[in-house]
């Protein structure tokens, strides 16, 4: 499972955007991955990754929906969005490193 950590304090201004880089299991950027909010389709903000695997799109205000990653030839994935307030901490197992903006999309294996 992948997760973005979405944190804020009363004194910080929120960026209002999701952004990150989608890579494959070899660390190469994956182009044209559809990254979208898991909400009713007509309200879902979304973006396709560019040639560097980078995506950025506006967050829907007032909610923290999971993000869905879709690309033919790869396993569909969901990124859990987690909200925290100042002073709170979250522990994951396995541990997520500081760079939580790189997301690995696993290829489909054929048996």
Number of domains: 1
Task: Predict the CATH topology.
Answer: Immunoglobulin-like
Helix-residue proportion = under 10%
> What CATH architecture do you see?
Sandwich
Average predicted confidence as pLDDT: 76
- Report the sheet-strand fraction: 35-45%
**What's the SSE pattern?**
EEEEEEEE
Say which CATH homologous superfamily is assigned.
Carboxypeptidase-like, regulatory domain
Morphology call: globular
What gyration radius follows from the Cα positions, in whole Å?
Answer: 14 Å
Instruction: Name the CATH class.
Output: Mainly Beta
Question: How do the strands line up in the largest sheet?
Answer: 1-7-6-3-4
- Report the total helices: 0
End-to-end separation? 23 Å
Tally of DSSP β-strands: 8
* Low-confidence sequence ranges: 1-14, 93-98
Question: What is the makeup of the main sheet?
Answer: 5 strands, mixed
Explain what the structure shows.
- The structure is a single chain.
- The chain is 0% helix and 36% strand.
- The protein has 111 residues and is mainly beta.
- The protein is built from no helices and eight strands.
- The strands form two sheets. Strands 1-7-6-3-4 form a five-stranded mixed sheet, with no helix packed on it. Strands 5-2-8 form a three-stranded mixed sheet, with no helix packed on it.
- The protein has one domain (2-104): Immunoglobulin-like, CATH 2.60.40.
- Mean pLDDT is 76; it is low at 1-14 and 93-98.
């Amino acid at each position: 499972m992948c997760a973005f950590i979405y944190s804020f304090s009363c004194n910080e201004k929120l960026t209002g955007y999701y952004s990150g880089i989608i890579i494959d299991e070899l660390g190469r950027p994956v182009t044209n991955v559809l990254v979208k909010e898991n909400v009713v389709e007509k309200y879902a903000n979304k973006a396709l990754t560019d040639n560097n695997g980078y995506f950025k799109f506006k967050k829907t205000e007032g909610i923290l929906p999971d993000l869905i990653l879709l690309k033919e030839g790869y396993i569909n994935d969901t990124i859990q969005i987690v909200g925290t307030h100042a002073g709170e901490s979250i522990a994951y197992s396995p541990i997520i490193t500081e760079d939580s903006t790189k997301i690995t999309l696993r290829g489909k294996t054929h048996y």
